[in-house]
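Treating backbone geometry as a discrete language has practical consequences that deserve illustration. Part of our work consisted of pairing the sequence of a single chain with a tokenised description of its backbone. We regard such an encoding as a compact summary of how the chain folds. The amino acid sequence and the backbone structure tokens for this protein are reproduced below.
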Amino acid sequence: MSGSSNVRFFQARPRDAPQAARMTILVTGATGKVGSRLARRLAARGLRVRAFVRDPARAALGDIALAVGDLLDPGTLSKAVAGVDAIVHCAALFRGATPEQAHATNDLGTQHLARAAIAAGVKRFLFTSTGLVYGPTAGKLAREDDTCNPIAAYPVSKLAAERFLLSLDLDVRVLRLPFVYGDGDAHIVEAVPMMRTFPPEQRMSIAHHVDVAQAIALVLEKSPSHRIYNVCDDEAVDNATLFASVGQPPPDGSGAERARAFESVMDGTRLRDDLGFKPVFPRLADAVVKGDV
């Protein structure tokens, strides 16, 4: 986890505070890029946060309470979810995971957690999925009701978990996240070697950590059950511009076929229309200006 001194907190509106103060939220994946930053922001918003972690030594989360366990060990989940009002499930395996590992953690692990939530009477379950579930979009904006055709193991496992959750008698909401960056996260720099052969003109949706946290808070507090939302900035970015934001020359385009699995451009209208979402960083350029990429 990096950049804790660079966290940009957003404040709850006064009319949200009483509801927030009553909620206890379990955040899984709380040592990861999204989960660690999200846990701190939800706590700053007034919610009681419990962080679900495998290794407490990695959880530099200040005063946030920890629940130690593993999604692959269902016996550790009942204590973690006890007394929880809502779960924000961010834990996942992504880069470097085999198809079997992705399925075990992202699909079966989610199933274990959902069953524990139902047994404990948890009222709300928010699942952070990925925009990659749509599969290659050829630059067309993907909407939440579009057919999904993922071609890589990670989004295949995430889509399976989505479908399982949405089949349950549980108050489920799904957020399909884009490439997330900013807030001291070296995600763009780390992605450059993997994307070095991607076409420079290929675009993908992105979102700053501040805006992912804002979207999650809005969905927790306001959205109806069994609703899917795309989370993204106002402007999808091409790979050349993404690379330039961290001082790198554009990718060379020699691996266009491999790059197709990561081509995901989403329409974020539903989140804006339903819940009034408005990005703090509508474009990558806004974050670049503030030195927060």
